[in-house]
Write a structure and sequence with these properties.
Layout lengths: L2 H12 L2 H27 L8 H72 L26
Helix pairs in contact: 2-3
């Protein structure tokens, strides 16, 4: 990445464009437009020499034009950011809904697994706590000695 692009990326990260335009409108564009309007009113050949009131009105006209252009840019920038955040919020809300749906399905699967285990236990007459058969075991054949401990 070249140094200029790096500097621009750093400036955009630290100093967003909307702030730059807001400050530049007030401190650069308005005085520049007003000065150009006043200079043009006074120095262009072929125009009658205006009075000071005409120069001031030209100054005000240039300042008003610069302010209105800055306002238009900032209002469109705000609409752009609103659209971006609306998209981000929509994606986050959709992800949240999908997460809730996944958790709901997992809990349904757990309930189904518990019910299936309980039905197996009931079918085999098993105690669900110790999982030991409740029916007596067949007796040992009479010829074998009992196991010693």
């Amino acid at each position: 990445m070249n140094p200029v692009a790096h500097l621009i990326a750093y400036a955009e990260e630290r100093f967003p464009v909307n702030r730059l335009v807001a400050l530049a409108t007030v401190f650069i564009f308005v005085p520049l437009a007003a000065s150009f309007s006043a200079y043009a009113a006074k120095h262009f050949p072929g125009l009658p020499v205006p009075s000071n009131a005409t120069i001031v009105s030209g100054f005000a006209l240039g300042a008003t034009a610069a302010i209105s252009i800055g306002y238009k840019f900032l209002s469109n920038w705000g609409a752009h950011e609103h659209r971006q955040w609306s998209t981000v919020v929509g994606v986050v809300e959709r992800a949240h809904e999908l997460q809730k749906e996944r958790l709901r399905l997992e809990s349904q699967e757990r309930v189904a697994a518990i019910q299936a285990t309980e039905s197996v236990h009931a079918a085999h007459e098993l105690d669900p706590i110790t999982v030991v058969p409740l029916v007596p075991l067949p007796a040992e054949p009479s010829g074998t000695p009992p196991p010693t401990v």
